[in-house]
Amino acid sequence: MIDGKFAILAIESSCDETAAAVVLEGRDALSNVISSQIDIHKAYGGVVPEIASRHHLDNVNWVCRKALDDAGASMDDIDAIGVTYGPGLVGALLIGLATAKAYALATGKPLIGVHHIHGHICANYIEHKDLEPPFMALVISGGHTNIVEVTDYNELKVLGGTRDDAAGEAYDKVARVLGLGYPGGPLIDRIAKEGNPEAVEFKRVFLEKGSMDFSFSGIKTGVLNYVNSEKQAGREINVADVAASFQQAVLDVVVAKTVEAALSLGKDKIVMAGGVAANSRLRGMMEAECEKHGLGLYTPSPILCTDNAAMIGCAAYYKYKAEGADDLTLDAIPNLPL
Prior knowledge:
CATH architecture of the largest domain: 2-Layer Sandwich
Largest sheet: 5 strands, mixed
Structural class: alpha/beta
Number of helices: 11
Helix content: 40-55%
CATH topology of the largest domain: Nucleotidyltransferase, domain 5
Number of strands: 10
Order of helices and strands: EEEHHEHEHEEEHHHHEHEHH
CATH superfamily of the largest domain: ATPase, nucleotide binding domain
């Protein structure tokens, strides 16, 4: 306990951020330490799983110690250990999970396995102390694009997801085609502000009527075909215009489907989560649509959009309250369903 409040040491290592945090009663993050590998993976144009795992191994004990130090706490103050056990890169997940198990075994503290996507949604509880379910959530990141109905803290139902590329994955691939570098999301968001979102007509893919699923592989191919045809014709490519047009085509679909899902199921709040939730154009469009339809909108600050451990500590708290602890046989599940 810290100040009489249930304290969780949380660990996140599902992809290329090694993170640890100390969170009180699911809402107050006393620390949130993130060691990013972005600069390491830039040379490869994306995350290399084996390299990510090695750096998690190097960093995980350090981030845990720093999270405790930043919180002014010791393991004696910690009541439970929360950790991501899926989905994610299996090698990366195993590093965080093994560390959490070691802490749990050595101290006798409960172990709580957390679903990574549940964690992203829970980041909003840290940012917005007044937020409570029910609501509609848009989880949009490099690995996931889902519309999730949240009826209670631990009751989540996926209504729609991507059938091919996640939105963030499409951003990365298009950024590579345009020669912008990695990671693509922030780079496209930045340069798109200088472009005309109506300059190039890319197809909006809504799929069959009533579907809450997404498909982004077609627009990725559309950008590639456009760039190749312009080069073959000897015409100069306005990268800012292409980036802005691509982004607009993706976000038109994302925003429309999320708002439609909320209205059709009678939800008066929309929550955004995941790395792409930091995108400035997405935030602006969603704010405008929510205001138009009288919906509340909740978004985390950028540091809570990225992979972090504070969100895992929040999700662990609500899971533990409802279901208790996991045992030490808990295993990493790279394709863990929500």
